[in-house]
Amino acid sequence: FLSAVTVYNINIVVIESAFDIMKLLVLVLLATAVLAKHEIYQGWKSYYLGPSTTVQLSTLATLFDQYEVDVLSHPVLQREGVVLVKPEFQGPFTKALDTVGINYRVHADDVKKALDIDDENIAKKKQQSRTRNNGAQLPYDNYQELDVIYEYLRNVAAKYPDTVTLVQPASTFEGRPMYYLKISTTNFEDESKPVIFIDGGIHAREWISPPSVTWAIHKLVEDVTEPDLLERFDWILLPVVNPDGYSFTFSHSRFWRKTRSTDQHSLSYLCPGVDGNRNYDFAWNTVGTSNNPCTDIFAGGSPFSEVETRVVRDILQEYLHRTALYLTMHSYGSMILYPWGHDGSLSHNAFGLHTVGVAMAEVIDSKSLPN
User: Fold this and answer.
1) Quick check: 294 and 271 in contact, CB under 8 A?
2) What is the DSSP letter of 20?
3) How many domains does the chain have?
4) Number of H helices and number of E strands within the chain?
5) Domain presence at residue 26
6) DSSP string, 182-211
7) Beta strands in the chain (DSSP E)
8) Most CB atoms within 10 A, among 55, 148, 223, 281?
9) Has this prediction a pTM greater than 0.85?
């Protein structure tokens, strides 16, 4: 959560007409909507967890299920994680942590208040961005909403038609378009060029993920400092895999993670959505998933039940014969993960993946800010 001091500006106005009354009513309703947006998180707290043994790690998995803990970042040995806990479970959960000796400390004592402060800061940055450049450039000092990202993709494709192609492969469950860009100096016609595919935003609440993909677009098209990347490779960039869920986190529930489909279970009308990351067909619904549609890790009724994951599948299948690298961007945890995650075994590309991962980590570390 962003840290800030909440300041409310109250304007006293003289009502001179029915039109003024209407305008004031609209402003009051908007303010009320903003303040009520995070009511579902009233009383919630977030905690840092620091297990020190493998036994404690195993115990945490049980406690997470028992107390309906929402894990924002999984703790590992020597590295704290962050979790959200509902008001009714905070006492029992922390008591259980004390019993087994797992270190913990409060991350946010009032999650709703922290989210309200975030909203104020986001709105302020949004206004500054409009004033600064009329919204013509994507903000990288603020989170990027779906309509802003989509406008950017359309503008880039229109401005650089020789290298950029905008593709709309499908519409989401709720009817939103899905967009990705194909970036190539040879219009994807040179079969000898390897393809690099990068996507983001499959988990709706991971707001920092899509900007990492749009920044890659910016560096490949608008601010080209490494032209060899364009000469040597063709690129596919899909900033938001899960547009429905992503939009929902901005308008309704900040920590929503899944898609928004309602056709995958008899209870989907009460508990919509599927964890897209668990909806692929490889080892589907075997490890780290749930058959309960009300959990954040519901794998869906079948592999590729979600149109969003089918789009990713179709891109990979179309260019599999020359795909050199596939990156999917997530947050948070500062980790670079490679196969296999379901059983801990190594793929036949493990050495290359590890080498590339270490190189990426070293560069990221060299560019990171202190603390």
Assistant:
1) yes
2) H
3) 2
4) 10, 9
5) no
6) EE-SSTT--TTS-EEEEEE-SSTT-TTHHH
7) 45-50, 70-73, 81-85, 103-108, 164-171, 177-183, 195-200, 234-238, 323-329
8) 148
9) yes
Amino acid in position 48: Y
**Which residues on neighbouring strands pair with residue 200, listed in sequence order?**
329
How far from the centroid of its chain's Cα atoms is residue 240's Cα? 8
Q: Is 273 exposed, middle or buried (0-12, 13-18, 19+ CB in 10 A)?
A: buried
**Tens digit of pLDDT for each residue in 97-107?**
999 999 999 99
CA proximity to 56, closest of 105, 106, 103: 103
Q: Which amino acid is at 242?
A: N
| 60 pLDDT tier (thresholds 50, 70, 90) | very high
Distance of alpha carbon 248 from alpha carbon 277, whole angstroms: 18
Cα 186 to Cα 143, 161, 176, 190, distances in angstroms = 33, 12, 30, 6
Domain ranges, residue 219: 142-335
Q: Which of 290, 301, 296 minimizes the C-alpha distance to 266?
A: 301
Q: Is the domain of 152 the same as that of 88?
A: no
Question: What pLDDT, on the 0 to 100 scale, is given for residue 334?
Answer: 82
* CATH number of the domain residue 60 falls in: 3.30.70.340
Q: 174 phi and psi, to 5 degrees?
A: -90, 5
The span from the CA of 173 to the CA of 299, in Å, is: 16
**Chain centroid offset of residue 106 CA:** 23
246 touches 206 (CB < 8 A) = no
Residue 12's pLDDT band, with cuts at 50, 70 and 90, is very low
CB 202 within 8 A of CB 210: no
28: three-class secondary structure by DSSP:
helix
Residues recorded for the chain: 371
Q: Do the beta carbons of residue 68 and residue 86 sit within 8 Å?
A: yes
Query: What is d(CA 84, CA 71) in angstroms, rounded to the nearest whole number?
Result: 6
Q: Reduced to 3 states, what is the DSSP secondary structure of residue 250?
A: helix
Looking at every residue in the chain, the average pLDDT score rounds to 90
**Are residues 148 and 98 part of one domain?**
no
Whether residue 15 is contained in a domain is answered as: no
Name the residue type at position 238.
L
CATH number at residue 174: 3.40.630.10
